[in-house]
Amino acid sequence: SMQCFPGLVLALSSLLGALALLQLSLHLRVPSRYGKHEERLCRPRGRLPARCAWFLQELPSFLVPALLLALRSPPRLEPLGCRLLCCLFCWHYFYRTFIYPFFTRGRPFPLQLLFFGMLFCIYNGFLQGYYLIYCAEYPNDWCTDIRFTAGLLLFLLGMGINIHSDLLLRQLRKPGEVTYKIPQGGLFTYVSGANYFGEIVEWFGFAIATWSLPAFAFAFFTLCCIGPRAYHHHRYYLKTFTDYPKSRKALIPFVF
């Protein structure tokens, strides 16, 4: 039976933080080459349809924690650590795996990026699941702790913004269209990367609610990974559309 090794949690969390800084250094000036930032001269080889790619990439983040939970002997469904995992982390990735991909209208996704995305989801799914199922310990009144309640509210707010922003982006295109248009409505009124802003808020909420090093490392990784992408989206819109609202910020309303 698997047991908790605090040293492993610390090592994996530290590596995740280092990967976050690497992502930031790689993509702060040059965006990751997919979607609207894809090289125009690049041949469409080694790609999967967006729906298939998103499903395969996100699936490990749902399956790995579920497998860890199934392997736990005796089952650990009652402590709060497992409830947090099942209700927050797996809830997000259930949506990302089984709902979001079947509505997305994105362009074909490069296999190389899909491979690295799957590796990350396996890694992070294991880290978050392993910590919450085998290591996390909370007092019985944790559900009334300000960290849990504030984190849960932030998580729900961020997830709501993220899902609503995805819906607005989908409505910009008719089936079969691949052209880009100016997002309108919702938080897009204030920021170019409303969907990214929502996801960052969501995972920082999760980190506060679980009050754990793995979750804070993941929230930091999310910020360093999709924060620069939101910035490059903002620059793309300003360069491509002469009528793009100049009052919009890149990622955080009223800041930058």
Characterization of this structure:
This protein is mostly helical. It has one domain (6-33, 46-240). It is 62% helix and 2% strand. The chain is built from 7 helices and 2 strands, in the order H-E-H-H-E-H-H-H-H. Strands 1-2 form a two-stranded antiparallel sheet. Helix 2 (50-71) runs antiparallel to helix 3. It is globular and about 60 Å long. The N and C termini lie far apart (49 Å). The mean pLDDT is 87. It is an enzyme of class 1 (oxidoreductase). Residues 1-20 form the signal peptide. Residues 108-256 form the 3-oxo-5-alpha-steroid 4-dehydrogenase C-terminal domain. Its EC number is 1.3.1.22. One of its GO terms (cellular component) is endoplasmic reticulum membrane.
